[in-house]
Amino acid sequence: MQNLTITRPDDWHLHLRDGEAMKAVLPHTIRQFARAIIMPNLKPPIRSVADAAAYRDRIIAAIPTGKQFEPLMTLYLTDNTNPEEIIAAKASQFVKAVKYYPAGATTNSDFGVTDIRKCDRVFEVMQQVNLPLLLHGEVTDRDVDVFDREKVFIEKHLLPLKERFPNLRVVLEHITTSDAVQFVLATNNIAATITPQHLLFSRNILFKGGIRPHFYCLPILKREEHRLELLQAATSGNPKFFLGTDSAPHPRNSKESSCGCAGCYSALHAIELYTEAFESANSLDKLEAFASFYGPDFYQLPRNTEQITLTKTTWRIPDEVPFLESGLVPLWAGQEMRWQMAEH
Ligand code: NCD
Ligand code: ZN
After folding, report:
1. CATH of the domain at 64
2. Could you tell me the residue range of the domain that residue 183 belongs to?
3. Is the CB of 217 under 6 A from ligand 1?
4. Is 141 a catalytic residue?
5. CA pair distance 328, 255, nearest whole angstrom
6. Ligand 1, atom 11: nearest CA belongs to which residue?
7. Beta-carbon neighbour count of residue 258 at 10 Å?
8. What is the pLDDT of residues 276-311, one digit of tens each?
9. Is the CB of 248 under 6 A from ligand 1?
10. Does residue 175 belong to any structural domain of this protein?
11. Residues 137/116, Cβ–Cβ less than 8 Å
12. In the chain, how many domains are there?
């Protein structure tokens, strides 16, 4: 096969940032994706429909002329989120979900929830009005090993949450473990996004010949056996698993630091990375549904009608792209790739 034409994909988990940073990365996403679920972890976070409306306007204003892109907005859940805000979010039509971060779990999560049960009144309303809950599924307890945080979150918080709210529609974001795959398969009204880094790499790459900060994201990469199970889930044709890059740009100097930030940048070449992963599993025929069908189906939105074409050709991922003062290192910089999206 030399060409692969698929329906234009969407990114169901994206960090776009704001201001100059957003202007630098937005064109990359727009080149590949028609829509994206925009993460609300700005400083301060997007907590109200008014915040989301203003952020959406700034994104739309930054879309280069002649390009099409639809930002799908989310609200950042806090201990103080009001059930009325959920009603207003649903009514707005442009807020598509609410994002849960455990306080202190990751980049800009200081406003996150301190105890998930504090939000039960909000979940009740979300379940009623059919607004999905997106989970950063990790515990932050100091005594839990960093590699076990997803598994413990599922046992301690997600299982009880789904028992309390069986009809609440949930996306377990950027899953990293076989525990997450098994839980999603066994439970109703829950789906999962999977990133390119968790399909392509195990935790070994973090320490290959030295410490490699550009592979550091949260949840952290896991053992090879987990990667294989994620790849199996993504290529299985099960609609519960779909594309979400978690592309999270940080300037080079905040990654290459004595205390480096978490986040991999993949908006530049996401669809090519996923294509490599699917080809490695001999499952190119499953790519289109994972990338372009199951996401809109879950969010109850129409599928895109445009197409993109990937061509078999070799090219090198650039070492850096322009971004603020110190540049941005794409995921797997320097790697030779076998598929490239054609320019239209
Ligand atoms: C994200 C970021 O930088 O905003 N980082 C990451 O490692 N994924 C936050 C997040 O989604 O956890
Ligand atoms: Zn994220």
Report:
1. 3.20.20.140
2. 9-305
3. yes
4. no
5. 9
6. 246
7. 4
8. 999 999 999 999 999 999 999 999 999 999 999 999
9. yes
10. yes
11. no
12. 1
